[in-house]
């Protein structure tokens, strides 16, 4: 019997236990939706294509639902919770790359260059600024910078380094010389996902204070905590500018800011809701597997500050799972089998 058949068998058993026909019908709808997402999104999760984990989502899903010491009610909660995953596919990122370029980045270039829609040939002027005088670079190597260039028709850019590495290894004078040679007037820094913003903030501020060009930071997906951090950074730099007139402009424009329903813990999560039960389950599983999970830097709800207002993101990207997402999704250790195993920067 296939994993898909075994999952159907589990759902049928849960339906037999329910007297509520509406709840039973909801389980069927969830199963149908998950099978559609399996075909269109989940089966192309990159870390499982050539790894020790099954590449077929249904096989991982069945193993995940049957992890040790889960009650039938907990398995059903995990099944329903899978329907709440915020999965971002390659096509979703292509759309976000295009949205970023044609939306906030273009508006910033127009504002910075003084281009108005009433000007004759404003489109040509904008293209000159976007394609020839703007340096597009990622913060880290997880952002598919070549794809960003390709889908937006940006040509002739030989150097597009990850700025976190550039900050660590780079020669500032050499970078400034390259900027002058290319006649760049501004820098756009990009990232695929930002949680708390702690890891990327130092790199962004370094770019603003060091490279003598206006900087825009444009993450594709960001949590509210990270967005608040960058709004605070912008306010800090704006306040410092009167005393430092040569300090370049900093702008922050994310494409997609996550809402509270993308986190299992937030101040408005109702008691005994599905998210509340999953949060408690995640904490219990973390305690049960504490010996193996202590090797990982994430807590039970992922990598967050102790005072984070939202924790336990439901975000999965086609390329990897952020460490801000629930470890019960991605952290395989001991007897626990993950649903979307994460490839970490640091070895466990």
Describe this protein's structure.
With 348 residues, the chain is of the alpha/beta class. It is 48% helix and 11% strand. It folds into 2 domains: 3-88 and 285-330, no CATH class; 90-257. It has 14 helices and 9 strands.
Number of helix segments? 14
Shape: elongated
- The count of DSSP E runs of length 2 or more, i.e. the number of strands, is 9
| Strand residues, percent | 5-15%
Largest sheet: 5 strands, parallel
Task: Compute the average pLDDT.
Answer: 92
Order of SSEs, N→C? HHHHEHHEHHHEHEHEEEHHEEH
Distance between the termini: 34 Å
Gyration radius over CA:
23 Å
Percentage of residues assigned to helices: 40-55%
Ranges with pLDDT <50 over ≥5 residues? none
Structural class: alpha/beta
Domain count: 2
Descriptive keywords:
11% strand; 348 residues; elongated; 5-stranded parallel β-sheet; two-stranded parallel sheet; alpha/beta; 2 domains
Task: Please give a quick description of this structure.
The chain has 348 residues and is α/β, with parallel strands linked by helices. It folds into two domains: 3-88 and 285-330, no CATH class; 90-257. It has 14 helices and nine strands.
